[in-house]
Amino acid sequence: MPGLGTSFGRGGATGYQQDLANSDCIVVMGSNMAENHPVGFQWVMEARERGAEVIHVDPRFTRTSAVATRHVGIRAGSDIAFLGGIVNYILTNERWFDEYVRNFTNAPVIIDEGFVDAEENGGIFSGWDPEQRKYDVTTWQYEGIAVHGAAGQREQGFKGSHVKGHASHGAHGGGMSHGNPPETDATLQHPRCVFQILKRHYARYTPEAVAETCGCSVAEFEAVAEALCRNSGRDRTSAFAYSVGWTQHTVGVQYIRTAAIIQLLLGNVGRPGGGIIALRGHASIQGSTDIPTLYDILPGYLEMPHAERYDGLDDYIARSSAERGWWGNAGSYMVSLLKAWWGAAATPENDFAFGYLPRIDDDHSAYWTVEQMLKGTVKGYIVAGENPAVGSANGKAQRLGLAKLDWLVVRDLVEIETASFWYDSPEIETGELRTEEIGTEVFFLPAASHVEKDGSFTNTQRLLQWHFKAVEPKHDCRSELWFYYHLGRKIRDRLKESTDPKDRPVLDLTWDYPTSGQTHEPNAEAVLAEISGRDADGKPLGAYKELKPDGSTSCGCWIYCGVYAENVNQAARRKPRWEQGPVAPEWGWAWPANRRLLYNRASADADGKPWSKAKQLVWWDGRKKKWIGDDVPDFNEQKPPDYVPEDDAKGPDAIAGNHPFIMQADGLGWIYVPQGLEDGPLPTHYEPEESPFANRLYPQQSNPARQTTDLAEDPYSPDGSPVYPYAVTTYRLTEHHTAGGMSRFLDHLAELQPAMFVEVHPDLARERGLEHGGWATIVSPRAAIEARVLVTDRMRPLRIDGRTVHQVGLPYHWGTRGLTTGGAANDLTHMSLDPNVHIQEVKALTCDIRPGRRPRGAALPKFVRELRERAGAR
Asked: Could you read off the pLDDT of 457-476 as tens digits, one per residue?
């Protein structure tokens, strides 16, 4: 459920942005929205002015907390316990939206009789293989039906994976092994139906258990749960807003899944003012996954082919598509993509050049790559728009890996730490690295900023907004489009005489973009038009429904099809919201099909009537025989609510008229996930990799499927170690941007936040002898850094299991370069990862904190090592 991004203004508020102002209750959790997404936060404030409740649940009291109607402090890493408690509250007090749940979710579906819940098995689901550290999901399935991820039945693990616990069961929805609908119990009483499994699973998440696990009071928890229930139903809707405070955990995906369960139970998905609003850390992170910078997907979330399983295009389509739902059209999306990339060279006779695509045979994620650097098997690295030396977990391991490369290319606005590690890094100071012994050849290529190039931002409301170049880039600075286009041109020129078949994929690419100016800058709108799609005559396509599997259409990303409809850059439109309807469809363009709210069929009841006048969006017009409303219907516009598919129906035709979730094979919102997740069909509270406490809800301490490494450079603290007694969380500041490359070099921002600091409560300051404004050393099993002390009651201690736990707060923007320098918080963090998306756990770990500055030179690694050995860190 993509949500709200950061790159928009009041004049162009659309969809989720303006829609957020229509919420009756907004829970901001895992985010400091006021400081880190201040433009979007205006809609939260507008909702509050209209009378909405705004609740902030977070370990810190921040500016978001200050303007919320309620702040609840919880322990970092305990969010599933809190959210699971809300699920229990809804079920125990019978507050679910019954008509929505029965008709629109998989609550009535009966699950395989072999399924054993974590509730009955010490915190582990059935199918767990302790040696492989992964699940066999066979028993998680619907009764009698095998369900798989709608973007493809992915492999059950990669050969040679670098981390413990890697597997892959699929993603993006669900497909079924045959066309029969699942077995259900409309009364929701069958002991194996999803609804009853859910009740049993969350029965132990009582208000008292939540309070003891999270550190809040029972009254605080119940106030949040009641506010959500009170503000949900036919006439009212509530929303969640989250950011990386949820995602950067070993159970990050399951955090969001728990919120999704709450919203499905309360009927807040696909309806105005509801949903789950994702708040990304950059203006176009959504675009970076739509047109992916990720190793395991192709544009539009199509699956990357695997080396071991896919024989050809037909086999790929059979595995990647679904018999039911919109993913049944995956063949049209894939063939159109191949035609966009290889044009005339992609023909039916050669599987539309499907064989040109690379295959993946291993993990290939960022942290896998770091380990391969340390092992010497990755020789070269191109870094663009990243600063892993200080911006990725375990900065020391990152820098040691860079030192083992043969060559490194860094494209950035300034010389960041990733480009300067070889002469300016903590390891140079300690002697662990010596400049003259580092063999890495570093190429620094200056990049153009967003005001120096044409292009688009895609925010997390899925809204594409075009920006035009304001000034020419200076000197040798160049755009990414210029760099990759001319790099490809030069490579193709070198290969032009080649007769080697392995060079054909490069030589046959469509690589004929017009250029202009002295630097021969490629035309960005020409690229957008190619992505949008054309028919065989070169005419622009209007929407993804026009894509064909026979090679007569080309489209660089099926969900973006139509962004250049009628030869008009739809993303460049800027009609003010006060001059158009409620969803402002003429401000930019939202994928897919300029639809502003996904699954908006759910804004009407099973019969197609609005749940209420206050919350209507799209509805069935019986006279016109079509779905109409304020938004583009996310449904077949001519499919009536009483449509029942034939037994042999395929693709979208197999979705019933009262099932809104068309990307799922069953058309239902998945409260329970039978396949697609690595770590369980229902979210379960696990402690972080490093925690001051034992798991009080289950014998299983941490996510059993989490990814860990055996690297000597990445040790972990034992749970509850007295050597590292304090909880740590990391966060962003308004004045700095991510790893600091775009802000630490600007004098006015450096002056506003001039020094790395650590936030501690007055009680902790007294306990450890810390002075406000003085120096403190923060140490983990991996590193020690120093920071200025900020004594504040915003980091309040929590009472858990009968004892007080202090939390330490660290911003992560600093490093050795720029106008303001300081210790990198990510030097302290580890590389234990969420198994679904390989994201690092940097929002909850443990540390010690001491007064004074850190040791210098060779004394620093000795200090860290001695504490690590005392703790018995592994």
From this structure: 998 889 999 999 999 999 99
* C-alpha closest to that of 62 among 42, 35, 40: 35
Backbone angles phi, psi at 812, to 5 degrees: -115, 25
With tokens 């006060």, the residue in question is 578
Q: How confident is the model at residue 282 (pLDDT cuts 50, 70, 90)?
A: confident
Residue 231, φ and ψ in degrees, nearest 5: -105, 30
CA distance 411 to 414: 9
- The DSSP code sequence of 130-155 is TTTTEE-GGGGSBTTB-EE-TT----
- Greater confidence, 701 or 460? 701
DSSP-H helix ranges across 415-511: 417-420, 426-430, 480-495, 504-507
Look at the alpha carbons of 464, 466, 467, 469 in this order and tell me if their dihedral is positive or negative.
positive
Ramachandran angles phi, psi of 532, nearest 5°: -65, -40
- Using DSSP's 3-state secondary structure scheme, residue 615 falls into helix
CA distances from 18 to 8, 9, 26, 461 (A): 11, 10, 13, 11
CA gap 822, 809 in Å, rounded: 15
CA–CA separation, 649 vs 258, rounded Å?
32
Minimum mean pLDDT among 71-80, 304-313, 459-468, 572-581: which range? 304-313
Q: How confident is the model at residue 404, as a pLDDT?
A: 98
- pLDDT tens for 795-851 read 999 888 888 989 999 999 999 999 999 999 999 999 999 999 999 999 999 999 999
Distance CA 660, CA 19 (A): 19
Is pLDDT above 80 for 170? no
Amino acid at 623: R
CB 440 within 8 A of CB 403: yes
Q: What are the helix (H) ranges across 453-533?
A: 480-495, 504-507, 524-532
141 Cβ contact partners less than 8 Å away, ≥ 6 residues apart: 111, 112, 147, 674, 675
Contacts of 824 (CB under 8 A, 6+ apart): 389, 390, 395, 417, 785, 812, 814, 815
Assign 55 to helix, strand or coil: strand
Distance CA 701, CA 557 (A): 42
Phi-psi region of 818 (alpha: psi -120 to 50; beta: other; left: phi over 0): left
Mean pLDDT of the chain: 92
Is the sign of the CA dihedral 212, 214, 220, 222 positive or negative?
Answer: negative
Tell the burial category of 802 from Cβ atoms under 10 Å away from its Cβ (0-12, 13-18, 19+).
Answer: exposed
CA 130-135-137 angle, 5° bins = 150
Q: Are 57 and 28 in contact (CB under 8 A)?
A: yes
How far from 42 is each of 64, 284, 584, CA to CA, in Å? Answer: 11, 20, 17
Longest dimension (CA), the chain: 81
Amino acid (one-letter) located at 484: Y
The tokens for 413 are 């606005």
CA neighbor of 554 nearest in space, from 569, 566, 539: 539
Q: How far apart are the first and last CA of the chain?
A: 38
Q: Give per-residue pLDDT as tens, 549-560.
A: 999 999 999 999
Residues ≥6 apart with Cβ < 8 Å to 599: 1, 269, 270, 634, 660, 661, 662, 669
Residue 268: helix, strand or coil by DSSP? coil
pLDDT band at 322 (very low <50, low <70, confident <90, very high): confident
The answer to whether the beta carbons of residues 737 and 725 sit under 8 Å apart is no
Dihedral, 269, 275, 278, 283 alpha carbons, nearest 10: 100
Phi, psi of 665 (to 5 degrees): -65, -30
How many Cβ atoms from other residues are within 10 Å of residue 534's Cβ? 20
Cα–Cα distance for residue pair 552/638, rounded to 1 Å: 25
Kindly report the pTM of this predicted structure.
0.95
